[in-house]
């Protein structure tokens, strides 16, 4: 059974966005936990066209951030490294590490790496009646917020891996089976699969080969223009 919650997208000059089918993102650089009185209203995954656009914006922000760093400091590594900061989500350290392991073993063109400086996105934790979500300002700075209650109802590693799938460019597909990671909460709380299927793995590799090449080209041209 899928629970539902109100959804909205907050759009400001800095393009603060909500994403990933969990809730509404505040227009701040870090989440502000809300009271726990309305935990019963927490939904699992709830799709909308606004949410899909926000998912895409978050992915593009991370892609741009990674490309700018690669352009400034060229590397011979084939895979693109995306750095995340998990220091503010200590309760989910195991799930985040497991999600990272799953994605790094599933795809070859992008690699997730923990770090506390120069991160492309961050994880936060807390109580929020809107559930879990991700937010970006459109300039390569963003975060994933993991809600305590929601991660008690649904398999926490699946939730974390699903959220991270959006960072890597995958959209929601709630009507999909449990074997599809981006079906999110569609199959219900009994679904514990935290692995992307073959189509999802292929799509991420494709995005980080073609999409990153374009982002890197733009970043390099910007550096040349600035006289580097």
UniProtKB/TrEMBL annotation:
Its cofactor is Zn(2+). It comes from the Bacteria. Its EC number is 3.4.24.77. InterPro entries: MetalloPept_cat_dom_sf, Peptidase_M7. Residues 1-29 form the signal peptide. The keyword Hydrolase applies. Belongs to the peptidase M7 family. Keywords: Disulfide bond, Hydrolase, Metal-binding, Metalloprotease, Protease, Secreted, Signal, Zinc. It is an enzyme of class 3 (hydrolase). GO terms for molecular function: peptidase activity. It catalyses: Hydrolyzes proteins with a preference for Tyr or Phe in the P1' position. Has no action on amino-acid p-nitroanilides. It is found in: Secreted. It comes from Streptomyces variabilis. This is Extracellular small neutral protease. The keyword Disulfide bond applies. GO terms for biological process: proteolysis. Coiled coil: none annotated.
């Amino acid at each position: 059974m899928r629970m539902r919650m109100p959804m909205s997208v907050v759009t400001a000059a800095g393009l603060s966005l909500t994403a990933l089918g969990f809730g509404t993102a505040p227009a701040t650089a870090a989440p502000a936990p809300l009271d726990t009185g309305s935990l019963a209203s927490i939904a699992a995954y709830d799709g909308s066209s606004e949410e899909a656009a926000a998912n895409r914006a978050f992915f593009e922000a991370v892609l741009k951030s990674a490309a700018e760093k690669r352009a400034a400091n060229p590397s011979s590594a084939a895979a693109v490294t995306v750095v995340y900061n998990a220091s503010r989500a200590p309760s989910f350290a195991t799930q985040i590490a497991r999600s990272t392991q799953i994605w790094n073993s599933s795809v070859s063109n992008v690699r997730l790496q923990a770090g506390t400086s120069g991160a492309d996105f961050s994880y936060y934790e807390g109580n929020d009646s809107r559930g879990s979500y991700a937010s970006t300002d459109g300039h390569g700075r963003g975060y994933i917020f993991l809600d305590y209650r929601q991660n008690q109802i649904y398999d926490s590693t699946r939730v974390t891996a699903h959220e991270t799938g959006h960072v890597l460019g995958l959209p929601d597909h709630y009507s999909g089976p449990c074997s599809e990671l981006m079906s999110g909460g569609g199959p219900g709380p009994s679904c514990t699969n935290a692995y992307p299927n073959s189509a999802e793995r292929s799509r991420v590799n494709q995005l980080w080969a073609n999409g990153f090449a374009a982002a890197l080209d733009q970043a390099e041209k910007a550096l040349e223009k600035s006289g580097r």
